[in-house]
């Protein structure tokens, strides 16, 4: 009797395989839900902290506090799990600093400004272009990661979705601003390029340690940008404080879960879940920001972008 549970759920048994796939689905979906929730959460943070649309200094402070805390959370988690948190060579510190200044600081300068001007629904859809940028950049860097007909089709379908979401009332009425939609797309490109560099850095460092330090350093740089620009956050209370902690926690928690999934499962099996991020981002923005997701352009764009992500990330079996 003591062995009956294990006997019925061995890794090779149908029940064991089903259970494993169930948890992969559950945790991967949770990660994308957390990432998707950041869009309405940041915009609600702007409202709670009375951060004006053009108050870039305060936006940088808000972003800096978030990622500095996220980095500290991951450092504590890495320390708790026995990772070599501070066994980092001078050359690795230099690489981490470059990664932090690009993947965190530069990316989120554009992202936080862009999100102040664009709706959460549009931002969630537009930011998904990072997947397509990654595929294109990887083609020119990695000999074993070339563009295929399927990937090209996925990129084309995805970018068509980006054009569709920017139509206003007709295809002849295009609604696109540099500091809004433009900055969101630039942020996606910066993330894609920095992630390629981060992949190289991770070959000689523990991924969690690398991410913890680059988030911390990138967060400090964002705070510095806010401080030298005379940015202030004067409306802090328990609500905005909890919101900031949630934003920091979702970044660290989602990364930890996603890394664990990538470690124990085929990459393609996990990355294909990326198509859920714009879906959750758009749905949650519609729910918590009272934005309209039911417009034909939003629904069609979401369908096209998600289809594109599925095409470029799926692996033939």
Q: How does this structure look, described?
A:
With 317 residues, the chain is mainly alpha-helical. The chain has one domain (26-313). Helices cover 76% and strands 0% of the residues. The chain is built from 13 helices and no strands. The longest helix is centred in the first third of the chain and has 35 residues, at 14-48. The protein is globular. The model is unreliable at 1-19 (pLDDT under 50).
Radius of gyration from the CA trace? Answer: 20 Å
Count structural domains: 1
* Mean pLDDT value: 87
Number of helical segments with 4 or more residues: 13
The biggest beta sheet is recorded as: none
> Helical content, roughly?
over 70%
End-to-end distance: 38 Å
Label the overall shape.
Answer: globular
- According to DSSP, the number of beta strands is 0
Unreliable parts: 1-19
Fraction of residues in β-strands: under 5%
Which class do the helix and strand fractions yield?
A: mainly alpha
| Sequence of secondary-structure elements | HHHHHHHHHHHHH
